[in-house]
Amino acid sequence: MSIRAITTIIVTLILVFSCTVKEDTIKIGLLEGPSAVSFMALIDKPPVIEGKKVEFIIHSEPLQIQALMMQGKLDFAVLPTVMAANLYNKGIDYKLLAVPVWGSLYLLTNNPAIQHLNQVQQEKVYLFGQGATADVLFRNYLEKNVLNHIQPDYSYSSNVELGNAFLQQKISLAVISEPMVSILMAKDTNIRIIQKIEPEDIHLKFSKSIFAQTSFLVKANLIKHYSKLVQTVSEQYKESCNITYQQPRKTAGLLVKHGFYPDTTIALQSIPRCNIRFSYAADVKETVMDYLRIFYTFEPASTGGKMPADDFIYKLPSE
């Protein structure tokens, strides 16, 4: 056999094995907060699927998960849906399997006189992540409700910083996500929710929830080589999401056990606000696209300058 033929075989083998789950481990990247809550049953008892151990890689910031995806180090990942669309449009080949979290952003205040933003005059509302989910949805909300006098302020760089500023009474209005919302309200009874921040699309012909906030993604090569594994992981994740809202006390105990919440009371208050509901992406495709269209229309760069193509959403063969 010639050296060229041997080289061709070696290269082919490398390409084949690079498309498989490495080291008999399924790596799932997810975020602290609602994503971790939705995976709690599996985090507590990581399954072995087709002889492969499930390993959870948990970070506090979406950019940390994004970096691992860009390096091809994750088999599955959970990200904000708009960020997932952006990565897809940049050629990072992950497909959208499911939507597990349907909105966990809330407008908070510690000012007892404020019941609605219409009462506020020339006030700043603090939030972090300019151009990210909370920012775009909040600015969209202000525009649709003609609240031109309200100004977003990005002085703080994380939920934790916003929370500390609230507790120190440095700010009186902020858009914050779970679980920080429940933690703050437990620490300071003056802090309360004015309203949930929802997407608003004037093009919809009827009212419906389109807050497809979070995406469960799979590496495209995994679909090609391990389609049955992808299906099994999806089914087990769906069951974990079901346990989360069907057995909140059990889930709350696990969240405290694994250090995600300080106590079960706060965890129990937080779980409903996380709005966890597993839906296969193919079943809610129109809703996902309605949601992304808000971002594309309001700030095109957020989705990568265009709407994702149809193959962004993967339909499991059994669906």
Structural write-up:
Helix 7 runs parallel beside helix 8 (about 180-185), helix 8 packs across helix 12 and helix 11 (about 250-255) crosses helix 12 (about 265-275). This protein has two domains: about 5-100 and about 210-310, D-Maltodextrin-Binding Protein, domain 2; about 105-195, D-Maltodextrin-Binding Protein, domain 2. Helices cover about 40% and strands about 20% of the residues. It is built from 13 helices and twelve strands. The protein is an alpha/beta fold and about 325 residues long. The termini are far apart. The chain has helices spanning about 5-20, 35-40, 40-45, 60-70, 80-90, 135-145, 160-165, 180-185, 220-225, 225-245, 250-255, 265-275, 285-300; strands at about 25-30, 50, 50-60, 75-80, 95-100, 105-110, 125, 150-155, 175, 190-195, 215-220, 275-280. The chain is globular, with a radius of gyration of 21 Å.
In CATH, the homologous superfamily of the largest domain goes by the name Periplasmic binding protein-like II
Shape: globular
For the report, how would you describe the main beta sheet?
A: 7 strands, mixed
pLDDT < 50 stretches:
2-21, 202-207
What fraction strand?
15-25%
Taking all Cα atoms into account, the compactness measure Rg is: 21 Å
Summary?
With 319 residues, the chain is of the alpha/beta class. The protein has helices at 3-18, 34-38, 40-44, 62-70, 81-89, 133-144, 159-167, 180-187, 220-225, 227-246, 248-257, 264-273, 285-298; strands spanning 25-31, 48-49, 52-59, 76-80, 94-101, 105-109, 124-126, 151-153, 173-177, 192-196, 214-219, 276-280.
